[in-house]
Write a structure and sequence with these properties.
Number of strands: 9
Protein name: 3-hydroxyisobutyrate dehydrogenase
Strand order of the largest sheet: 3-2-1-4-5-6
CATH superfamily of the largest domain: NAD(P)-binding Rossmann-like Domain
Structural class: alpha/beta
CATH class of the largest domain: Alpha Beta
Radius of gyration: 21 Å
CATH architecture of the largest domain: 3-Layer(aba) Sandwich
Bound molecules: nicotinamide-adenine-dinucleotide
Order of helices and strands: EHEHEHEHHEHEEHEHEHHHHHH
Shape: elongated
Family: Belongs to the HIBADH-related family.
EC number: 1.1.1.31
Domain 3-hydroxyisobutyrate dehydrogenase-like NAD-binding: 167-293
Keywords: Branched-chain amino acid catabolism, NAD, Oxidoreductase
Number of domains: 2
């Protein structure tokens, strides 16, 4: 099967490599020439343009930063042909970028109007998951299109969940990350409070990890060094999941919360907390580094 893979960045290149390793003919393209060169060096076929890659492919994957980039590539900009107009009728478009639910739905509509099939299939698992083919895919689109894409997604990931119709993969992603942001802040606040009250990190961990405070932000991404040796806190908060990416995803959550008219006070507070974190020192730090901001704001010297 010939597959076009567009967007060969941190996530896209290792994902494309895993498809090629499974025996598919993968034609890759990125607007950054160095990324196409890296793909060629990895043994993939590099195309001269996105439309060259998409013409003649049965499946077109996109892994870009933003919804605008996806919509522009689908439609074409400044009179140039877009991916949808060069692809053979009935081509399956699978967008793995993390973008707004509304943009994902717009992309589905464009693809459908052009006679194609389409899925939104954002991922979690980060670069390590992309390299090791252990990503989790959250997929929106029809049953038939999901089943057509499933073997390819399983080549790149460990968990593939069909969340419902158009845009619902992105919906699952923003909902999950909103939970994650709120819970990471809650865990960090609890550790700082415990410190002030004289409670050791290990004692709080031993209690909360076996009680109703248990959650991923505590038991995997523990924001203090020690209790979970593999958590980013043990390596000076190197990501992991960078504050900049959490802030981006919470921006998408804010968009969804506003357009759905939901009273999501905690989620929107977390959006503000991580926006500031990402604009400051947290952009390149793991998002569990928020604990240091909380300590600073709690006036460390006032103890
Ligand atoms: P990245 O910036 O490394 O890669 C995106 C690539 O898309 C870039 O190389 C860019 O040049 C290319 N691109 C943009 N427009 C293009 C076009 N029209 N044609 C061809 N190439 C184009 O970003 P990334 O870290 O790989 O993330 C990609 C997406 O995955 C984002 O939406 C991100 O939010 C999401 N995501 C990232 C991670 C992570 O840990 N990096 C984890 C989960 C989800």
């Amino acid at each position: 099967m010939r597959i076009a893979f567009l967007g060969l960045g941190h996530m896209g290149l290792p994902m494309a490599k895993n498809l090629a390793a499974a025996g598919h003919e993968v034609v890759g393209f990125d607007v950054m020439p160095a990324a196409v060169e890296a793909a060629r060096e990895a043994g993939l076929t590099g195309a001269d343009s996105g439309t060259d890659a998409a013409a003649g492919a049965s499946v077109v994957f996109t892994m870009f930063q933003t919804g605008q980039q996806v919509l522009d590539a689908y439609r074409g900009v400044d009179g140039a042909e877009g991916l949808l107009s060069v692809a053979a009728s009935g081509t399956l478009f699978v967008d793995c970028s993390t973008i707004a639910v509304d943009d994902a739905r717009a992309a589905h509509e464009l693809a459908e109007a052009a006679g194609h099939r389409s899925l939104d299939a954002p991922v979690s698992g980060g670069v390590v998951g992309a390299e090791n083919a252990t990503l989790a895919f959250m997929v929106g689109g029809s049953d038939e299109d999901f089943e057509a894409a499933r073997p390819l997604l399983e080549t790149m990931g460990r968990r593939v969940v069909h969340c419902g119709g158009a845009g619902l993969g992105q919906a699952a992603k923003v909902c999950n990350n909103m939970i994650l942001a709120v819970s990471q802040i809650a865990v960090a606040e609890a550790f700082v409070l415990g410190e002030r009250l004289g409670l050791s990190h290990q004692a709080l961990f031993d209690v909360a990890s076996n009680a109703s405070g248990q959650c991923w932000a505590l038991t995997t991404n523990c924001p203090v060094p020690g209790p979970v040796p593999t958590s980013p806190a043990n390596r000076d908060y190197q990501p992991g999941f960078a504050g900049a990416l959490m802030s981006k995803d919470l921006g998408l959550a804010e968009h969804a919360v506003t357009s759905a008219g939901v009273d999501a006070k905690m989620g929107m507070l977390a959006r503000e907390v991580y926006r500031e974190f990402a604009e400051g020192p947290g952009a390149g730090q793991d998002f569990s580094g928020i604990i240091n901001t909380i300590r600073t704001r709690s006036g460390e010297g006032s103890r």
